[in-house]
Amino acid sequence: MKKLSGKTALVTGAESGIGQAIAIEFAKEGANVVIVYFKDQENAEETLQQVEQTGQKGLVLYADVSDEQSVAQLFEQAYQQYQTLDILVNDAGVNGSGTTVADMDTATFDRTIKTNLYGPFFCCRAFLKHRLQQGGKGKIVNISSIHEEVVSAGTADYCASKGGLRNLMRTLALEVAEQGINVNNIAPGMILTPMNQKAIDDPKDREQKEQKIPMKRAGEPQEIAKVAVFLASADADYVTGSTYAMDGGLMRMVAQGA
């Protein structure tokens, strides 16, 4: 039997990169998928085609996860189509601004925090209310970043959002553990997605960055998706409150040579 047979998952940021790979991998494992996009409906429709090629059902919906009302409407539409949602994947996010705190305006900081932290909060709240009304059970997987633990100058907005997501996950895990709802993070390092487009387009830039990774290569979205399947499946029923770093060993390089 497929690992997610009979389940329905909602995946934000499913029009590209990691979110798209997760949506497709979930479908391969037997899940129906709500494909949530923000900017690229055409790519979301491509995700839908690949979901349907597996024999599973898909639904493309728009949402701005940084907006509370947009998220509320998203879940209302999802529940109209599917009476229940079993799995939530919070993948939608924006990259850091590359601006130091001294030079960062409030709107820039606000945009990153609202998308990367408020977004998962809004989605988790809507999902949990439904699951608790259904008697519990369910899986939440947040796509975080190794920057929930490690930081770099010029990324305060991004690092603050991912550090917040780490503790949001840990807190939620405690709150809903008795109801059989599992909450975990995946923390990618360098993955070949649009967030790392320069590394995709420029082999020299990619090689330079990969030399800092112990495995000497970037990761692929499909590799993240396979761990997401594990965390969303019954195989991970006793796993909650954890972050799974997927970075080729990059985090272990912190302070090397000190």
What's the arrangement of strands in the largest beta sheet?
3-2-1-4-5-6-7
- Total number of helices: 8
Computed CA radius of gyration, to the nearest angstrom = 18 Å
Q: Considering DSSP H and I runs of 4 or more, what fraction of the residues is helical?
A: 40-55%
Q: Would you list the SSEs in sequence order as H and E?
A: EHEHEHEHEHEHHHE
Low-confidence segments, ≥5 residues, pLDDT <50?
none
Question: What is the CATH domain class?
Answer: Alpha Beta
Give me the CATH architecture, please: 3-Layer(aba) Sandwich
Number of DSSP E strands? 7
- Give average pLDDT, whole number: 96
Q: What is the terminal-to-terminal distance?
A: 50 Å
Principal-axis shape equals globular
CATH homologous superfamily classification: NAD(P)-binding Rossmann-like Domain
The third-level CATH topology is Rossmann fold
Element layout with pairings:
Elements: E1 8-11, H1 17-28, E2 32-37, H2 41-53, E3 58-62, H3 68-81, E4 87-90, H4 106-133, E5 138-143, H5 156-176, E6 181-188, H6 197-201, H7 203-210, H8 221-232, E7 243-246
Parallel strand pairs: 1-2, 1-4, 2-3, 4-5, 5-6, 6-7
Q: If you had to describe this structure to a student in words, what would you say it looks like?
A:
The chain has helices at residues 17-28, 41-53, 68-81, 106-133, 156-176, 197-201, 203-210, 221-232; strands at residues 8-11, 32-37, 58-62, 87-90, 138-143, 181-188, 243-246. The chain is of the alpha/beta class. It has a single domain (8-247), classed as 3-Layer(aba) Sandwich (Rossmann fold). The chain has a 7-stranded parallel sheet, with helices on both faces. The N and C termini lie far apart (50 Å). The model has no long low-confidence stretch (mean pLDDT 96).
